[in-house]
Amino acid sequence: MPNTTGSTKSIDYRDEKPQERCGEPLMKGRHSKDVDNIAPDGTSFADPSNEHFFLPKSGNRSKVDNGSTKKKRWAKIKGACTMQLLRRRLPIVQWLPRYNWSYAVFDLIAGITVGLTIIPQSIAYAGVAGLPLEYGLYSSFMGMFAYTVFGSVKESSIGPTAVMALMTFSYANEGGAAYAALLSFLAGIIELCAGLLNLGFLVEFISAPVISGFCSAAALTVASTQVKGLFGLKFSGSSFVEIWTGFFTNLSKINPWDAGLGCSSIVVLLLLRKLNSLKNLGSLKKVGCLRNRFVDGALWFISTSRNAIAVIGGCVAAYLLETNGLTPFTLTGNIKAGLPSFELPPFSINKTDVEDGNSTIFLTFPEICSELGAAIGLIPLIAILEQVAIAKAFACGKQTDSTQEMIALGFGNILGSFFGAMPITSSFGRSSVQSASGVKTPLCNIYGGILVLLALGFMMPSLAYIPKAILASVIITSVIFMVELEELKPMWKSRRLELVPFGVTFFCCLFVNMEYGILIGAAVHLFLLAYMAGSRPHPELIRIPGNKKTAEKVIVKADTNLYFPGVEKFRQVLNEATDGETCVMVDLSHVTEIDYTALKMLKSVASDYHKRGLMVLHFTNASPKVTKSISSALHSADIDFLIPNMDEEDCGPITDNV
To answer: What separation in angstroms does the CA of 597 have from each of 557, 560, 576, 608?
Structure first.
């Protein structure tokens, strides 16, 4: 909700100035020149009473050096503990001392609003993940509590998402809730380690077209998984192709009540999504009541709470029909009430044998990890991508601490796994709701988490009446806007080659597998990047005719760095450059790096010139780094470096070596 008072500002703790260090400096009050005269026990070496005074000079020096080294090491350890670092790693320390009642009001509104959004969404996402519906709520509260302490962006809302649920689905089908909780724990460990080791640069290898293709495919897959609930169908199949094949095969079995309720709910939810924009329509701009502050606030609240309204309305309708002996809708059924128990995620399980069906097999932790496979690395990677991207989107141009976001996400997943949670990350939709609610600090997550706990404790019997068609419509209207069709036009206009990794990622994720799809897409884009950067040099061949005073010269001008994919093409140009008498100069003005394969090629060409009695290979306009690389790999007798910006009268050596 917009800030109506106009006087209360949110606490911005991203621009804090560096603070004093925690530790006091060593040797306070002494001059630096006196430090070497201080013994490890604090006395002076110049004091005859000190036992070090009577040691030989060499032994005395050794003890002094040893004591000085220990003191310097301790000083570094103490110097690493600063108030600035404490504030960065525990952001709650920054804003909590300045918290007041005005902030509390806005945070309470934001927390309740997001809580009303996350309750129906998390229940539906549990169904997407193939878990009992209560596990959606189990996954919702602990991440919010952890982000209150460790989170650095007040607008970010952490919890279950469609992508995380979809990536958990196949593993939850194999091992149930135990696999989901273990995935959350392992993902949290990796995210926390990535943050502590500053490994955020790894996500930079996933390009924007690959992310767009992945999100678009994930959105269509998630929406497709809701087709069965939307139309009241029951058939096997979970992949995109299997679902639509089963849908058209079972068209005659569609439940008209579920289909009518689901489709009408989609229409209503889409209309409520735009409810707050009614006042901007041409015919309604002149209606004065829509400009009223309270009416505007009411429209905004209805729009943002539309999912909760749909779920509550569906529950009431299903309950009233059942009391009259009618059960036209397919309901979710009983949802386990009560708070989840606190326990470590299972590191070994007894799993039902798929082939036998009656016997069980014992799986150790390494065997479970083998079954989880690539998901152990890919789920935290995708979670970090979403978390950091959303944090940057709401940073309003300010610097974002990606490391802290990874640490907060890691703690959220680790702590959540102790309550049976599936992997979580930040949700763009809920973060947008939180931002629009006028949130002031991350404390709003506490209110949202408490609302989830209240739902677990008291609302579960009522939620058993939720029609599955309602949950399906909530999911479909939430994820359908993740399909990034608007990205195709700018990619087509700016650089059409970017459509290749987008298309490869999209179709592989849609028809093969989500995990392998993003890996294949990233690999294809990196291959294209390497191909464009290394295998397509276009060296320019410039021939300068000779005259009575100077000989003919040929300049081979490299247009890019020399890497191994483009070595043979550059070798071909060098071989074509001379007929045995012509002076050959290689212009390296556009070259900043040469890899070892290219150096071996230059060495081979220069050696060949030397063996045939031709002129040496001349290099000009080489940077110091490139000069050092060439000089270290090529024989000085075969090459020569010409001083840049000189009018070379001939190809004679100007410098012997560089």
So the answer is: 19, 15, 20, 17
Decide if 574 contacts 605 (C-beta within 8 A): yes
Beta strands in 430-552 (DSSP E): 540-544
DSSP run (H or E) holding 269:
helix 256-273
With beta carbons less than 8 A apart as the criterion, state whether 203 and 520 touch: no
- Apex CA 156: angle with CA 419 and CA 18, to 5°? 110
- Answer whether 371's CB lies under 8 Å from 186's CB: no
| Rg of the chain over all Cα atoms, to the nearest angstrom | 34
Residue 305 CB neighbours (<10 A): 20
Which residues are 44's β-sheet partners? 38
Q: How far apart are CA 227 and CA 237, in angstroms?
A: 11
Residue 140 DSSP code: T
Reduced to 3 states, what is the DSSP secondary structure of residue 362? Answer: strand
The β-bridge relationship of strands 639-642 and 617-620 is parallel
Give me the half-sphere count of Cα atoms (radius 13 Å) on the Cβ side of residue 217: 28
The contacts of residue 273 (CB under 8 Å, 6+ apart) are 303, 306, 477
Handedness of CA 405, 410, 411, 417 (dihedral sign): positive
pLDDT at residue 246, as a whole number: 92
Rounded to whole angstroms, how far apart are CA atoms 587 and 619? 6
* Helix 468-479, helix 256-273: angle, nearest 10: 40
Q: Which amino acid is at 442?
A: P
pTM of this structure: 0.71
Distance of alpha carbon 313 from alpha carbon 265, whole angstroms: 10
How far is it, in rounded angstroms, from Cα 537 to Cα 565? 9
Contact 486, 372 (CB under 8 A): no
Backbone φ and ψ of 540, nearest 5°: -95, 130
Contact in structure between 155 and 433 (CB atoms under 8 Å): no
CA 648 to chain centre: 54
Report yes or no: 553 and 523 within 8 Å, Cβ to Cβ. no
Q: What is the DSSP string of 157-180?
A: -EE--HHHHHHHHHHHHHHHHHHH
Alpha-carbon span 304 to 318, nearest angstrom: 23
Determine the residue type at 441: T
pLDDT score of 252 more than 70: yes
**Amino acid identity for residue 443 in this structure:** L
Q: Tokens standing for 623? A: 């940077």
Half-sphere exposure of 653 (CA within 13 A, CB side): 12
Confidence of residue 292 (pLDDT cuts 50, 70, 90): confident
Question: Between residues 584 and 259, which one has the greater pLDDT?
Answer: 259
Contact 213, 501 (CB under 8 A): yes
Contact 129, 169 (CB under 8 A): yes
pLDDT value of residue 48: 42
Under 8 Å CB-to-CB from 306, ≥6 apart: which residues?
A: 268, 269, 272, 273, 275
At residue 98's C-alpha, the angle toward residues 97 and 99, to 5°, is 95
- DSSP-based helix, strand, coil % in the chain, nearest 5: 60, 5, 30
The owner of tokens 């900043």 is 592
| N-to-C CA span, the chain | 67
Query: Residue 380's beta-bridge partner residues?
Result: none
The SS3 call for residue 542 is: strand
Residue count of the chain = 658
Q: How far apart are CA 88 and CA 80, in angstroms?
A: 13
Q: What is the DSSP string of 600-651?
A: HHHHHHHHHHHHTT-PPEEEES--HHHHHHHHHHS-TTTEEEEPTT---SSS
Please state, rounded to an integer, the average pLDDT across all residues of the chain: 80
Which amino acid belongs to residue 539? P
Kindly report, residue by residue over 588-605, the tens digit of the pLDDT. 888 888 888 888 888 888
| Distance in angstroms (rounded) separating the CA atoms of residues 134 and 116 | 16
Cβ proximity of 630 and 639 under 8 Å: yes
